[in-house]
Amino acid sequence: MKEINFTIEESAKGRLDKVIAENVADLTRSQVQSLIKKGQILVNDVPTTNRYQVKPNDQVIIKLPDPVAIDVQPEKMDLDIVYEDDDVIVVNKPQGMVVHPAPGHDHGTLVNGLLAHTPLATINGELRPGIVHRIDKDTSGLLMVAKNDQALVSLSKQLKDKTNQRKYWAIVHGNIKEDTGTINAPIGRSKKDRKKMAINEEGRPAVTHFKVLERFGEYTLIECQLETGRTHQIRVHLKYIGHPVAGDPLYGPRKTLKGNGQFLHAKLLGFKHPRTGEEMVFEVDPPAIFQATLKKLRAISD
C-alpha cells in the first residue's frame, strides 16, 4: 500500500475532500470521499469525515491501495479498419469507445478488439500495446496503431517531431469571426478540478491551428490542426477562446447540441510509412449524428 503525506498550507480552506482533490494529482473528489469513508485518509493520525474543515499545518496521510492488475483480453469486435499492412493499422474509432484499458475500463476498448484481430507492438506496456496516440472516448475518428516495435518507434518519433498530420472537425458554440487562427497556450491539470485540464502557465506547451469551414450563426464548423498532442487539447483551447465544442460535457455549457458527447471528429491522419517511408494520408467522414446535425444547422441558417 502506497502512502502520500502532506501538510495543509496556511492558505488552504474548506472541506477535506475538496482540498485533497485540488492538491493531489490523479485523485478525483469522489475517489477521495471513498478513501475517507474506508478510513484510508488520516488527519493528524486520526480517521475523519469528508466534511472536516482543514486547519493550517494539519498532517494528512493518504493510504492508497495497491493497483489491481488488469488482464487485457482479446475481444472480437466489428472494427472499422481503414488501412492495414504488416506494420500499421489505421482505425476509424466510433464515439463511445475507450482507446485502451484502464481502471474502470478493463474491457470493450479498442485495444481489446485489435488484439483479437492482430498482434500489436509491445514496448509501451501491456495496457497500451501498439497505441501511438489516443483520442477521447466520445471523440470519433482516425487512429494509427503499430503492429510491431519498429513501427511504434517510427510513428512515435514522427508524433514527437511534429511531422505527421492530424486534422479534426469540430462544431463549436458561437460565431468565430476570424477565418483562421492559432491558439498557443500551455495546458496542465486543472487546480480546481483534477478530472479536467486547463490553461496553466506551469503546463506543457500546446498549439492548435484552426480554420473556419462554415458559419451557422450560433454555431461554427471548424477544422483544427494539432501541432502538439496534449490531453483534451482541442477541447480546452476552444473553451479558452470562448468557443467550446458543442456537446462537450466537461468543458462546454449545459445548453448545447444534442448528440453522443462532443462534436469532435479526427477527420484526417497522415504519416510516413515506418518501413517504406511512403507518405500516407487517410480521411474519413464524421459519424452519422455529426452529419445530421450539420444538415439541421444548414437548414436553420439558410
UniProtKB/TrEMBL annotation:
The keyword RNA-binding applies. The keyword Glycosyltransferase does not apply. Residues 14-74 form the RNA-binding S4 domain. The active site is at residue 136. Keywords: Isomerase, RNA-binding. The gene is rluD. Responsible for synthesis of pseudouridine from uracil. One of its GO terms (molecular function) is rRNA pseudouridine synthase activity. CDD domains: PseudoU_synth_RluA_like, S4. Belongs to the pseudouridine synthase RluA family. This is Pseudouridine synthase. It comes from Pediococcus acidilactici DSM 20284. SUPFAM superfamilies: Alpha-L RNA-binding motif (SSF55174), Pseudouridine synthase (SSF55120). It catalyses: a uridine in RNA = a pseudouridine in RNA. GO terms for biological process: enzyme-directed rRNA pseudouridine synthesis. It comes from the Bacteria. InterPro entries: PsdUridine_synth_cat_dom_sf, PsdUridine_synth_RluA-like_CS, PsdUridine_synth_RluC/D, PsdUridine_synth_RsuA/RluA, RluA_PseudoU_synthase, S4_RNA-bd, S4_RNA-bd_sf. Its EC number is 5.4.99.-. Gene3D superfamilies: Pseudouridine synthase, RNA-binding S4 domain. PANTHER family: MITOCHONDRIAL RNA PSEUDOURIDINE SYNTHASE, RIBOSOMAL LARGE SUBUNIT PSEUDOURIDINE SYNTHASE D.
